[in-house]
Amino acid sequence: MLRVRDLARNGLQPCSFAVGKGECVAVRGASGAGKTLLMRALADLDPSQGEVYVDGVARSFMTGPEWRRKVGYVPAEPGWWSERIADHFPDPDKAVRLAQSLGVAAEVFGRLVSEASTGERLRLALVRALLTDPAALLLDEPTAALDQASTARVEALIAERLGNGLCVVWTTHDTGQAERMASRILTVEAGVISVERDDSLVNHTAQATIEVAAKQAEACDRRERI
Amino acid sequence: MPDTGYIALGYGDLAVGAALIVFDAALSLYLRLGLARQILVAGVRMAVQLGIMGMVLTSLFAMVSPLLTGLAAVVMIGFAGMEVAQRQDKPLSGPWNWGVGIGSMTLSTILVTALALTTALRPDPWYAPHYAIPLMGMILGNTMTGVALGLNVLTSGAVAGRAAIEAQLMLGAQRWQALSPLVRKSLRTALTPIVNTMAATGIISLPGMMTGQILGGVPPEEAVKYQVLILSLVAGAIGIGAVAAVLVAAWRLTDHRHRLRLDRLGR
After folding, report:
1. Beta strand segments in A75-224, E
2. What is the pLDDT of residue A214?
3. What is the reported pTM?
4. Whole-angstrom Cα distance, residue A85 to residue A87?
5. Which of B161, B164, B170 sits opposite A68 (nearest CB)?
């Protein structure tokens, strides 16, 4: 699971929450509210205060690269460091299979990045992140540029991974998508994060997780003060 | 006038050159290039700066003092470092910009000049300003260009290629891994001008220093040897200076958590 304790950064008020194993938490908020700031702080791409744990291990006990192999991040505009698409995938066979399940043809791997459509690039970036087999995945509007069919494929693949215990934080402007994918919805407004909807109250597990996390956080704070 | 092997120029002779600068300025006015003022100011600066340099060199050469020669070296390196800093489109913030500029210029110039003075040239004393100062000036001027270019490509490239660099970091790459294509590109850019100069020299252009020596009465084959030495020294200094500047800047642009820190760029 992914546990966030008092995570704060430039443009983001301290926030604490947890994402259970196999849980998807949606993050909503107007453009510029701080959704991407939150994602980048979680991914440790920008400096932040507070602590984040993945499967019980604190980020500060890992190097940056170790952390990012465990916590994958797919930004809204993924980057490409080589001209050829295939260069971005160390294991092309696996990548092609996964991409095909998202509706990206195998031929695309023989092309240049500049020849791929925005939708193809988004899905390829998702494939790239999933291939490192992360424990948690941060998705920044992964279907914003996709048609309905492709969106459904992405949602199905993520749902499958959720079933295997992946933790997902998913930012989206699409209320329907948030309802479909997430058990909880967080809202970011001017850098303040709050809980908008919490279905997990029904089964109590995720809520209990939050409470436990909050108590642990308090205990840690107290210890630090002493 | 005694025969010194060269034709001494009078101030009237320089007026011919000045007339050409004024011609450029007039051209700029006529074609509305907006450069007239800059051309005239640059021309005056050239004359004044070189005039002062001439006086300084005359007295430095007369004194042969290690202290004064060292002081001149410090001032020259300082200006070159600041010039490197000023040529950056996206400079490192705070003292890092001129720190990297001055640091890399100091390291490269001192090392290469000392090497030349103690091995190839061996003047007596080794710090003889007659050799040390012009040598350093040549090395500084050329190294400055290479180092400034290399640094500029690194910082601008980090801004433009942020998504690509962070994509690698996100998949667990170390900072040097993620930056290595950009570091290589920066160093290539830094070295390209001197490589081109070396390749073209003697065919397309006669280098300024060699031309100067020949005009000063030195036999061409002697002037050529000097020129080869100088270009080699410059190539070496650019290599050292660019590697130092680019690596330090790349280190500063990332942090111990292997994050790209564009917030450490100013402007």
Report:
1. 136-140, 167-171, 184-189, 192-198
2. 53
3. 0.85
4. 5
5. B170
Cβ distance A65 to B174 less than 8 Å, yes or no, reads yes
Q: Would you state the pLDDT for residue B209?
A: 86
A-chain CB neighbours of B260 within 8 Å are: 45
Rg of chain A over Cα atoms, rounded to whole angstroms, equals: 18
Structure-block tokens of residue A10: 């430039």
Domain ranges for chain B, please list them. Answer: 1-63, 66-264
- The ipTM assigned to this model is 0.86
Q: How confident is the model at residue B267 (pLDDT cuts 50, 70, 90)?
A: low
Could you report the per-residue pLDDT of B172-206, keeping only the tens digit for each? Answer: 999 999 999 999 999 999 999 999 999 998 888 88
Q: Name every residue whose Cβ is closer than 8 Å to that of residue B248 and which is 6 or more positions away in sequence.
A: B100, B103, B104
Question: Could you say which of A65, A69, A81 has the minimum Cβ distance to residue B167?
Answer: A81
Mutate to test the interface with B, among A37, A44, A45, A82 (most CBs of B within 10 A): A45
DSSP character at residue B21: H
Chosen from B169, B171, B259 to mutate, greatest number of chain A CBs within 10 A: B171
Q: Do B5 and B216 contact (CB within 8 A), yes or no?
A: yes
**DSSP readout, B68-113?**
HHHHHHHHHHHHHHHHHHHT-SSPBSTTHHHHHHHHHHHHHHHHHH
**Cα(A7)–Cα(A5) distance, rounded to whole angstroms?**
5
* Residues counted in chain A: 226
**What is d(CA B123, CA B102) in angstroms, rounded to the nearest whole number?**
27
Contact residues for A81 (Cβ-Cβ < 8 A; gap 6+): A87, A88, B161, B164, B165, B167, B168, B178, B181
Helix, strand or coil, per DSSP, at residue A168: strand
Report CA B9 to chain centroid distance, whole Å: 28
B101-127 confidence digits (pLDDT tens): 999 999 999 999 999 999 998 998 888
What is the reported pLDDT for A201?
A: 45
Strand A57-58 to A49-54 pairing = antiparallel
Query: What's the rounded Cα separation, in Å, for the pair A168 and A21?
Result: 9
Report all structural domains of chain A as residue ranges with CATH numbers, in order of start: 2-225 (3.40.50.300)
Residues of B in contact with A68 (CB under 8 A): 169-172
- Closest-CA distance, B149 to chain A, in angstroms, reads 22
Contact list, B162 vs chain A (CB under 8 Å): 79
